[in-house]
Amino acid sequence: MATVAGVAVDPGHWIGGERVRSAGTFTDVSPIGETPLAEIARGGAAEVDAAVAAAHRAFPAWARTSRDERARLLHAVADGVEKRIEELAQVETADNGALIRSHRRGVMPRVAHNFRFFADWLLKLGHDDFETRGHTNHVSWDPAGVCALITPWNAPLMLATWKIAPALAAGNTVVLKPAEWTPLTASLLADIAAEAGLPDGVFNVVQGYGAEVGGPLTAHPDVRRISFTGSVPTARTIAAAAAPNLTPLSLELGGKSPLLVFADADLDLAVDLAVEQYDNAGQVCLAATRLLVESSIADEFTARFLEKAGRIRQGDPREETTDIGPQIHRRHLERVDGFVQRAKADGARALMGGGPNEELGGLYYRPTLFAGAPEGAEILTEEVFGPVLTLQTFDTEDQAVAMANGTRFGLAATLATGDPERARRVTERLVAGTVWVNCFFVRDLKAPFGGSRQSGMGREGGDWSFDFYCDLKNTVTAP
Ligand code: NAD
């Protein structure tokens, strides 16, 4: 047992209702001070086989369990999460360096809500029967089987439960592979699920590295669904692994989303929206990292942005007063810095930041804003996944739309405008899974969520989650 932030965390896998060790381990390191937190079981093909087999065995009984009972158990998991919000928040902050205040008051309550929402949605899921020449059509939502869920480190428990809850609600069993940089809260969730009474084998966790665990898991012939959140290159590897079995995929990938600020916008709001993009030290897939500002207000916008962003308090994420914490890992910080140095070499000017925070040391990277990057520069087209924004200007609505749509991504877009008619016109032309008008990050679990172009494949949320995690069946009965 490891103790992290005063909380006991089992570093083993969770397979068939039992803790399982591996011969090897890997060291989980906190981004706060780069201190080791725990030696985690390092899974491989054998642990994947065992977990898929356990999930496969548990599937028929779980699939037959009534909707009411499945919903009751998912609410019991939510109760368990709510009882342990402070512990989950402390452990997640130690593990991924995101703010304790948002884990306490935003993320962990939302984790519980993920379970409650999909439990309740299950109870009203369905179609009205309909008739064809006197025959009755009845659509049923049959669970698909074993689901492989693979998640990233930037919002570990939040993103995992966004998949686990609907997959289990639908009557599937699950094998979760958490990111190797943030394995801890998945382990706590296994404890909570067991205490809630989830039958053995319904929920399994295999810890380890991407290729060693994710590889065999995504190629496994008994896996009936793969839901992945992570980067585009990994998605390509997963799609190739899934191809021989034609395993259906849901992919939630990266972005390079725009924030369009029109001259008619409420400038205070626009600046607030822009500065918010540094949240979680920029490690947010949905972040609008390209600020596209109408030329006539660009100077004023920039001045106000620099003034406000200059007041961001960077530091220890365990302090309630901190606004942004460290990067997740030294390798990630070096990757972010690589983008920044290449942007400078390409001719972009850093109006703010532009390097690690030397005062704080460690993995703290200064919030950075670039202007003047030449068209086509890497910094304008590739996802950095750090606290790095770019500023570009436009003169016309057409130009704004062309710039907004000018990358291979299409995850989200944010608009600041005081003209509802313009908002409607521009929104219609944007390629994005989510568009926010005069707001950001407002997410309802009922809404479809996902990305266009290389930002993903498929949508999850509400009925769309159940569409993915179920095999829909239409039964036609003669009169
Ligand atoms: P990543 O692709 O490196 O890793 C994600 C997960 O995939 C990890 O668990 C990793 O171990 C696993 N993995 C790695 N290689 C694998 C393989 N060969 N087979 C199977 N699994 C494998 O991504 P990351 O660095 O952890 O996360 C950052 C990325 O995630 C960014 O691109 C970000 O935009 C994206 N993201 C997207 C969303 C969304 O909802 N669209 C949300 C959060 C993060």
Automatic annotation (TrEMBL):
Residues 24-474 form the Aldehyde dehydrogenase domain. Coiled coil: none annotated. Pfam families: Aldedh (PF00171). GO terms for molecular function: oxidoreductase activity, acting on the aldehyde or oxo group of donors, NAD or NADP as acceptor. The active site is at E252. CDD domains: ALDH_F8_HMSADH. Keywords: Oxidoreductase. It comes from the Bacteria. PANTHER family: ALDEHYDE DEHYDROGENASE-RELATED. Belongs to the aldehyde dehydrogenase family. This is Aldehyde dehydrogenase. It comes from Actinomadura syzygii.
